Amino acid sequence: YRSQLRRENEFYSFNPPPDEKPADPGDEHRILSTGVKLCYLCGCPGQKACSRCHLVTYCSKEHQVIDWKQRHKKECCDEGAASVASEILNSFVFPERELVTEPEKLPVKHEELCASNSSEQVNYTSDLEEKELESMAFHETRDSKVFLKFKKCIATEPHQVLRYCREGSPLWLSSEHVPIKAEVPKCPCGAERTFEFQIMPQLLNHLKVDRKDASIDWGTLVIYTCTDSCDQGNKYSPEFIWKQDFSEDRVL
């Protein structure tokens, strides 16, 4: 979803917040410098206060119920416990991290090394035609080159979680399941959508979502946005995301 706000708006201060941390760590999670109260669970604006302690606020009744069961029941009316709990990572939301933005340092172009100079004679006993075998071999070679390019590009920064290059080209990890232009829908305003950024699989290591019963996984998430950056008013505008998964024989 895309949300565009002018610098002067009803949600955030015209000036950025100071770099200094507030004296009370709890206030950092609940109140912006503009005085807007935040949901104690997700951090979104929330005006619904706890009826017992009136110290914490929520954006909805659902979030208040979830947080009550998880932690607030133990800390309600205990200011000391609330301050400590505000510094504990909430298991309901993803962990918060700082993104460091740096230009990409492209590796020096060099010839691709051959895995082996030896050749093996393979006897096929199947009924595949020669053209089918050639087609399979070509596809395998092409896919290997795409994946090799992916690995080389991220080798210099193996911990990168996001690649931004508006109107550029995504870094695919496979030649399969790559969208053509017709598969990327236009924006509701009528303008074409263009590639803007992609989310890398390394982010999964930081989200801590890998569980035996349920897990999130992707090869790369490619986001296409409106070329005109149209103004849809004071609301979120849906954009388009393309998910490319790992193939069974591709592991980073």
Describe the structure.
- There is one protein chain.
- The protein has 252 residues and is α+β, with helices and mostly antiparallel strands.
- 23% of the residues lie in helices and 10% in strands.
- It has helices spanning 25-30, 61-75, 79-85, 130-155, 203-207, and strands at residues 48-49, 57-58, 162-164, 193-199, 220-226, 240-244.
- A 4-stranded antiparallel sheet has the order 3-4-5-6, with no helix packed on it. A two-stranded antiparallel sheet has the order 1-2.
- A hairpin with a 7-residue loop joins strand 1 (48-49) and strand 2 (57-58).
- It is globular and about 65 Å long.
Our measurement of the CA-to-CA distance between the termini, rounded to an integer number of angstroms, reads 29 Å
Instruction: Give the radius of gyration.
Output: 25 Å
The overall pLDDT, averaged over residues, is: 75
Summarize the amount of helix as a percent range: 10-25%
Category from helices, strands and their pairing: alpha+beta
